[in-house]
């Protein structure tokens, strides 16, 4: 049976605005007010009015109210002092569920996504799987045919975790999505857009309409876009998931995941329980590094997107390349949807299909000198990967494809390196 639809809760009045209480309060200085926001467990800051770049650069005004240090401290603690009356006035009880550094990043992400609340996890996989582990009744799931491979493999066997069933569909084909609906049973739509590594675009608003018409929730993996490019909640999504390891952190030195939600719901409360019971919270030092990485997200992603667009145009006519897969190209099948949904910034990811087939793709990946041959994406360094050999049997990824994650190097250097690798 489908999970209950999310029930909206008040958005702007959930945070407690108070004068300083003690030097032990966990506060984040809100960027549109001089009064510190005291963050209790389970609360978030009001949605700010500033542009994303400002929110990120100032980390929502996070700092240390005790010393007035500009940079916030890392709250390295496993537990918290109990009050004399046997309570926990601060809202923080135990490190497996409560940490002020983690909460600061969650507040920032919720503000960027226009979300009611957000949670960090120990990895993107921990975040994605928590959604389904929290579902209490057998549910039919409709999911994108092309998505992050490890999660797709997990989702294909999701039935063992609660009797769920899943249909993998080309979610860029709305008619195929409608045909996949099982009346009275479909409860979750899971889409990844752009889809990794083919970079197909799914119309979030259209899928949201289909999902909500049958009483289902829409979850969007927005790892590739980030809230700089697309904010799925504005298009009707109920849940947004990120592998924060990738663009949000952007420095290839943190493993983390995140979920943001449009509204409170029974499912969201159960996801919170899953994180706590499975111990899937990210560590405070990793959260601090993630916050530091996110402060340059807007600048990084826009530069990476610029370089990716330049490379896509330059490689489109190369004699060794059969096709360039990049939603920013006007020749891309989903370019019109991408232009509307991605706000004119098409991301730093692209893929090449090589005329010489699999052998040429593997050879190119092995001969680069500036690009680094490694799994992952979204970091400051440019990465190249032959995806089919990583994903293995059953992958929808063509064997002639190489995936490119454009970093912050000069695009001329990146292009020259690829050309010599093709030779």
Summarize the structure in words.
- The chain is of the alpha/beta class.
- It folds into two domains: 279 residues, Aspartate Aminotransferase, domain 2, CATH 3.40.640; 125 residues, Aspartate Aminotransferase, domain 1.
- The strands form three sheets. A seven-stranded mixed sheet has the order 4-10-9-8-7-5-6, sandwiched between helices.
- The N terminus is likely disordered.
Could you provide a short overview of the structure?
The protein is an alpha/beta fold and 423 residues long. It has helices spanning 52-57, 100-113, 124-133, 149-156, 174-180, 204-213, 226-229, 266-278, 284-294, 297-316, 335-341, 357-367, 387-391, 411-422, and strands at 16-17, 27-29, 36-38, 117-121, 140-144, 165-169, 186-192, 217-221, 239-243, 257-261, 321-325, 349-354, 372-373, 383-385, 401-405.
Provide the descriptors you would attach to this structure in a database record:
single chain; about 425 residues; alpha/beta; Aspartate Aminotransferase, domain 1; 5-stranded mixed sheet
Write the layout of secondary structure elements.
Layout (H helix, E strand, L loop, with lengths): L15 E2 L9 E3 L6 E3 L13 H6 L42 H14 L3 E5 L2 H10 L6 E5 L4 H8 L8 E5 L4 H7 L5 E7 L11 H10 L3 E5 L4 H4 L9 E5 L13 E5 L4 H13 L5 H11 L2 H20 L4 E5 L9 H7 L7 E6 L2 H11 L4 E2 L9 E3 L1 H5 L9 E5 L5 H12 L1
Helix pairs in contact: 2-9, 3-8, 10-14, 12-14
């Amino acid at each position: 049976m489908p999970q209950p639809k999310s029930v909206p809760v008040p958005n702007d009045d959930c945070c407690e605005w108070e004068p300083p209480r003690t030097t032990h309060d966990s506060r984040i200085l809100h960027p549109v007010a001089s009064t510190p926001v005291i963050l209790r467990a389970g609360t978030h800051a009001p949605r700010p009015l500033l542009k994303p770049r400002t929110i990120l650069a100032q980390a929502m005004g996070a700092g240390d109210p005790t010393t007035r240090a500009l940079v916030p401290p890392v709250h390295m603690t496993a537990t918290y002092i109990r009050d004399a009356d046997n309570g926990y006035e601060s809202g923080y009880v135990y490190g497996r569920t409560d940490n002020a550094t983690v909460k600061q990043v969650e507040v920032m992400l919720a503000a960027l996504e226009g979300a009611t609340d957000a949670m960090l996890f120990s990895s993107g996989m921990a975040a994605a799987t928590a959604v389904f582990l929290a579902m209490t009744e057998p549910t039919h799931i409709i999911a994108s045919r092309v998505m992050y491979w490890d999660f797709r493999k997990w989702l294909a066997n999701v039935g063992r975790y609660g009797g769920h069933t899943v249909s993998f569909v080309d979610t860029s084909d709305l008619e195929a999505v409608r045909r996949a609906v099982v009346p009275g049973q479909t409860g979750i739509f899971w889409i990844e857009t752009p889809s990794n590594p083919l970079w197909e675009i799914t119309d979030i608003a259209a899928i949201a309409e289909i999902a909500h018409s049958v009483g289902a929730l829409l979850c969007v993996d927005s790892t590739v876009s980030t809230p700089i490019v697309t904010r799925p909640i504005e298009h009707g999504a109920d849940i947004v998931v990120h592998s924060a390891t990738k663009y949000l952190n952007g420095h290839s030195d943190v493993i983390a995941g995140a979920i943001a939600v449009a509204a409170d719901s029974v499912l969201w409360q159960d996801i919170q329980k899953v994180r706590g019971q499975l111990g899937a919270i990210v560590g405070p030092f990793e959260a601090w590094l993630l916050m530091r990485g996110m402060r340059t997200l807007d600048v990084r992603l826009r530069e990476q997107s610029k370089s990716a667009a330049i490379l896509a145009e330059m490689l489109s006519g190369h004699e060794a390349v059969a096709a360039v897969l990049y939603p920013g190209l006007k020749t891309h099948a989903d370019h019109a949807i991408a232009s509307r949904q991605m706000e004119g910034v098409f991301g730093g990811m692209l893929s090449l299909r090589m005329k010489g087939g699999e052998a040429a793709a593997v050879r190119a990946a092995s001969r680069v000198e500036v690009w680094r041959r490694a799994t992952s994406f979204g970091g400051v360094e440019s990465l190249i990967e032959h995806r089919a050999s990583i994903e293995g049997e059953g992958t929808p990824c063509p064997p002639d494809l190489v995936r490119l994650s454009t970093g912050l190097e000069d695009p001329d250097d990146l292009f020259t390196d690829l050309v010599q690798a093709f030779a």
